[in-house]
Design a protein that fits this description.
This protein is mainly alpha-helical. The chain has four helices and no strands.
């Protein structure tokens, strides 16, 4: 049996092009979800508000880390939920209890992550907002 021919070395530009294309596909997926999912627009507005508050209050580096991880986790959960819903709709266009359960569980994952992000937000921003409200005589 003859030995297989050696593979030619990979060309670096080709590898870079494929990696760049994969980032393009990912960005296209995020954009497609933004165009079709109302909840993602809510998350986009919330993200902008949180970044604005963070800049206003001058968050410490560790606080930015906590906020960025919380925001990123909520976005990931919402995007995964959107993907799961699309696959379930494709696999089961008619109502099926298991399809409904899969969609409910995926939505529940988003809810759990959003609540966890809310806790992070309260821990990071709560004391600052409270001080601001006291200084303004609101409380």
């Amino acid at each position: 049996m003859a030995s297989p021919e050696p593979r030619p070395p990979r060309r670096f530009p080709s590898l870079v092009r494929r990696r760049a294309a994969s980032f393009g596909y990912a960005a296209r997926g995020v954009w497609a979800a933004l165009r079709t999912e109302v909840h993602l627009w809510f998350h986009a507005v919330a993200t902008a508000a949180v970044v604005g508050l963070g800049l206003y209050f001058g968050l410490a580096r560790w606080e930015w880390v906590a906020v960025a991880l919380a925001v990123g986790a909520v976005w990931c959960a919402e995007l995964l939920n959107t993907a799961i819903e699309a696959v379930v709709n494709l696999a089961s266009p008619d109502y099926h209890p298991l399809a409904g359960r899969a969609k409910d569980v995926a939505a529940g994952a988003v809810l759990v992550m959003a609540l966890a992000a809310l806790v992070v937000g309260l821990l990071v921003f709560g004391p600052r907002v409270w001080q601001l409200a006291q200084a303004a005589g609101l409380v």
